[in-house]
Request: fold
Amino acid sequence: TIDWDADAAAVRMHLPLEALAARTEHRVVTTGCGQGSVFGSLLEDLEAIRLPVEARITQGELYELLNAIRLQESTYKSAGSVHGCALFQHGRMQLFIEDVGRHNAVDAIAGWMWLQGDAMQGTGGLVFYTTGRLTSEMVIKAAQMGIAIVVSRSGITQMGQRVAARLGLCAIGRAMNQRFLCYSAPERIELQPELAGAESAASGAGRAVSGAAGP
Reply:
């Protein structure tokens, strides 16, 4: 049930104890806010995820996305202490959510996408942006939403990079102004030499693509 006046929601479900035991048999320790746990056959579930093969982003589109975020009015600009997440579709910002927890913000976007139905399913034009770091949990949530390209103002954890590479998800971090690092699936980024400064470099996390405009 949802109480819109109180901004509160309550969910009740009835699950047989046998099913609950099966779901919690495997425990995966993650690097969310401190240390989290995800229960269930998580790795097996990842194998079933199929991200859109055609999903691509050009260097210019990435710069436009970052500029849109820069111009976005936000609580962070006036007060700080919050995380922001945004969903872009074919270059246009569809939704911008802020919350004290980045997981709350991405969950709100996932719920909004579900409410949109088929309009948000199976399209290669989706890009997810977050101000928070790309942990394995954030990468998995984006993949479960069918999003093949994620962008962060912050960096990525080792487990986040491994999961992204395994899924073929393009994880872009340290993205501000006209600079960024690509930690996985660099083939999903179309570099544009005319923007100046596009170069490739090796990193400890795997092949990283860095982009910069100007010197």
Summary: The chain has two domains: 2-47, 57-212. Residues 102-116 form the longest helix (15 residues). Residues 49 and 144 are 7 Å apart (CA to CA).
